[in-house]
From TrEMBL:
Domain of life: Eukaryota
Name this protein carries in UniProt: ADAM metallopeptidase with thrombospondin type 1 motif 6
Organism (species): Icterus abeillei
Length: 33
């Protein structure tokens, strides 16, 4: 599996619904809401 980063978004404020943990799929799901 090759992963290429095409865009980086820097969050400067706390996001109330953003939940980042060691489960990448759950973190991405939280980020996309």
């Amino acid at each position: 599996v090759n992963i290429i980063v095409t865009r980086l978004i820097v969050l400067t404020e706390d996001q109330p619904n953003l939940e980042i943990n060691h489960h990448a799929d759950k973190s991405l799901d939280s980020f996309c809401k």
